[in-house]
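hey so i finally got around to running the thing on that chain from the lab meeting. sorry it took forever, my laptop kept dying and i had to restart like 3 times. anyway pasting the input first so we r on the same page abt which one it is
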Amino acid sequence: MAASIFAAVPRSPPVAVFKLTADFREDSDSRKVNLGVGAYRTDEGQPWVLPVVKKVEQMIANDNSLNHEYLPILGLPEFRANASRIALGDDSPAIKENRVGSVQSLGGTGALRIGADFLRRWYNGNNNTATPIYVSAPSWENHNSVFMDAGFKDIRTYHYWDAAKRGLDLQGLLSDMEQAPEFSIFILHACAHNPTGTDPTPEQWKQIAAVMKRRSLFPFFDSAYQGFASGSLEKDAWAVRYFVSEGFELFCAQSFSKNFGLYNERVGNLTVVGKDADNVQRVLSQMEKIVRTTWSNPPSQGARIVAATLSSPQLFDEWKGNVKTMADRVLLMRSELRSRLEALGTPGTWNHITEQIGMFSFTGLNPKQVEYMVKEKHIYLMASGRINMCGLTTKNLDYVAKSIHEAVTKIQ
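ok and heres what got predicted. didnt touch it at all, straight out
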């Protein structure tokens, strides 16, 4: 029998975070804790369907006017408009001047990919595969892959995390921007930086914007946690709104997985801010062609849930309350973990846990300490030392804190 035509295909290594979850599921130890995958969990360790989402799903189910016809290629208009509105603000000058457009996408990843495909074809000229793309070091691993698979050849990193002080390396970041070629593209985390949980302050964002404006660098924001990070939509969108107020043209990839709990509905949006309405419409016309050959038309259910919620003042207020519930639980787990580590006298400083924000914390644990946590304590976390704060509960906090104490004390 002839060999398979696929015989030379190598096996790709598994995606690390999903492999971690698979290992966790196979573990029979009763003490096991999953601090890996980035999804919200209640204090009982269960996924949470937001009450407002349940309410809107019921409204949709009872609406006999709805059907399953295709949505427009660019997506549900009321979803797109409202998604851009919460990113940019009700009083956004860009919205008032009609120079904002958007594309409904398959999650935040889809928004990044549509943006990347467009930029590769049309940014600052035609078919610019050599334009440098700058990604923070470290960053969400998919950032590199999305732009690489879109055809960009020059993907670089910019300084971000200072391991020694467990905080932002602002001077390194600004220096990299100063030295970047003009018109380079910078991927910026709008809030709750993944994986470090460390964000620039408003004053630091102003410094970043000033350098980017002077060097003609293009900001591509990834906004995966608006509202979920601090509990405030306004605070978590501050950087994006500031850049718009400074006259930047920019892209902003939005995800509604975390702040609506719609993980498997894959609800995303790419907001485009241009110089004028004509520019934006020409950009959207090209993005429509890209979408047509990628997924052709987006799914409706998740977009309808978001659109209905954001369109109704009452549902909008209820949603903000739900989001604050999630954000407050994460903030509480940060405070509790830090206090326990400090009470144990765990070597090192642990203030970074409460100074960081969002779902993830960069603990500072090294790979050997992480290995000890996984193999000896059955606590699953990324090799980088990143933990999902939502994996902590009032029931496992003491065990996790004592395990971190042991790991840091025994292993250097």
